[in-house]
């Protein structure tokens, strides 16, 4: 039965022509004044109302930034409480100021809105493109909120801005590192008139990938779910890359189930990352499960998926099968891409054994001994098949991480 199972597995891996590919992969708001305020005895209720309107920063539907100092609020305890609520609603970077070009555009757009005129669209796009720090993004979101209110109250436009604007806004947030603002743009119900899309989320995910921030990735994925943003093949590519780079197999297993359940058609590069990760940790069961999913979607192997299958055979002590799949890869690989096999073989010899042993919890010495002998047997088998192999086996015997 085991021989039959092995024969079927090898047949599935080798059954189709294999071609190698080069790719590797909120509004600011003061808390609503409760009815309990009426129990207080105000001597000058009209004066207090004026103070409150200054704090909220709203005049005729236009939201203005708070510029008044705390001393303008008077000395009443209730005034101090409201002021503290406002100032604590947003964290700001001390000493950071908006750039001149962004501030000028912001002022021009605000004056236009005050004059009951919709600013030209070109000003909005220019402001987004010129954002260079967090305070620029802060002004951007303030003016977006003002524009939304103006469109709603003066132009009777209830729809949000199109999704292209949201993508540009999140791109700017990621560019300057204002990720908290970028997260606000992903909410389908927001006060900025933004229309979130999965493309907008990808800019934030790319930021997480650049900084190897798996925690941020998880937060963004939760926002996608809460706001009904559909998962895409590109989303899986980024998420799997972050999991691989942070060496988090548990996380990639979790999200792979979510993508498959959602019916996302994974790309070749996504399968490459997934299979390579399974081979790196020595999980042969996962290698063959992923290979089965991959073969149902695409019949042609990439170099990465083929080499991962070879590693799976080596982990199962089948060097002949490992040599066979590499030979088929070599037969179908264009001359210009054949050097890729030699590079991957050398990595298999000099890097992979120590990686896979590091991830094992027990029997490390036994695995080390079997890998040394099986890799040598695979290389010998390739030579017997007439394939010139330049892999340096001395690197395998010198590795201190896998003593035998």
What is the count of β-strands?
A: 2
**Share of helix, binned:** 55-70%
Please provide the ordered H/E string of secondary-structure elements: HHEEHHHHHHHHHHHHHHHHHH
How are the strands of the largest sheet arranged? 1-2
Report the portion of residues in β strands: under 5%
Rough outline: elongated
Uncertain regions spanning at least 5 consecutive residues: 16-93
Tell me the distance between the termini. 32 Å
- Main beta-sheet annotation: 2 strands, antiparallel
Radius of gyration: 30 Å
The average pLDDT value, as a whole number, equals 80
- Per DSSP, the total helix count is 20
Computed structural class: mainly alpha
Structural account:
There is one protein chain. By secondary structure, the chain is mostly helical. Among the domains are: 38-87, no CATH class; 98-229. 62% of the residues lie in helices and 1% in strands. It has helices at residues 2-14, 45-56, 77-87, 100-114, 121-130, 134-153, 163-176, 179-184, 198-210, 214-226, 233-245, 249-261, 268-280, 284-297, 303-315, 319-332, 339-350, 352-358, 364-384, 394-398; strands spanning 58-59, 62-63. A two-stranded antiparallel sheet has the order 1-2. A hairpin with a 2-residue loop joins β1 (58-59) and β2. α7 (163-176) packs parallel to α9 (198-210), α11 (233-245) runs antiparallel to α12 and α14 packs antiparallel against α15 (303-315).
């Amino acid at each position: 039965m085991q021989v039959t199972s092995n024969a079927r597995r090898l047949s599935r891996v080798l059954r189709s022509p294999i071609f190698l590919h080069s790719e590797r992969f909120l509004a600011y708001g003061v808390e609503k004044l409760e009815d309990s305020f009426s129990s207080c005895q105000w001597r000058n209720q009209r004066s207090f109302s004026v103070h409150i309107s200054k704090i909220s920063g709203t005049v005729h539907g236009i939201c203005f930034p708070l510029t008044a100092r705390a001393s303008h609020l008077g000395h009443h305890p209730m005034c101090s409480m409201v002021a503290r609520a406002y100032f604590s609603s947003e964290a700001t970077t001390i000493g950071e100021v908006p750039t001149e070009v962004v501030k000028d555009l912001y002022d021009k757009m605000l004056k236009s809105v005050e004059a009951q005129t919709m600013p030209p669209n070109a000003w909005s796009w220019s402001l987004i493109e010129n954002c260079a720090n967090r305070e620029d993004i802060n002004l951007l979101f303030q003016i977006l909120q003002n524009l939304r209110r103006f469109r709603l109250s003066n132009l009777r436009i209830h729809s949000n801005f199109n999704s292209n604007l949201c993508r540009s806004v999140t791109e700017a947030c990621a560019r300057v590192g204002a990720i908290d603002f970028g997260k606000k743009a992903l909410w389908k119900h927001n006060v900025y008139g933004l229309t979130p899309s999965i493309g907008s989320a990808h800019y934030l995910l790319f930021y997480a990938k650049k900084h190897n921030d798996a925690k941020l990735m998880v937060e963004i994925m939760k926002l996608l779910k809460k706001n009904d943003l559909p998962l895409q093949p590109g989303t899986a590519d980024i998420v799997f890359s972050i999991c691989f780079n942070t060496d988090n197999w548990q996380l990639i297993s979790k999200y792979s189930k979510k993508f498959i359940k959602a019916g996302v058609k994974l790309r070749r590069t996504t399968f490459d990352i997934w299979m390579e990760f399974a081979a790196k940790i020595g999980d042969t069961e996962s290698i063959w499960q992923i290979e089965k999913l991959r073969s149902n979607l695409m019949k042609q192997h990439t170099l990465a998926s083929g080499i991962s299958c070879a590693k799976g055979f080596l982990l199962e002590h089948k060097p002949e099968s490992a040599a066979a799949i590499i030979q088929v890869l070599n037969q179908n690989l264009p001359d210009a891409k054949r050097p890729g096999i030699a590079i991957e073989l050398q990595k298999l010899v000099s890097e992979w054994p120590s990686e896979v042993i590091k991830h094992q919890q027990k029997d490390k010495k036994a695995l080390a001994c079997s890998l040394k002998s099986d890799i040598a047997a695979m290389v010998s088998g390739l030579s017997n098949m007439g394939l010139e192999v330049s892999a340096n086996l001395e690197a395998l015997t010198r590795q201190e991480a896998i003593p035998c």
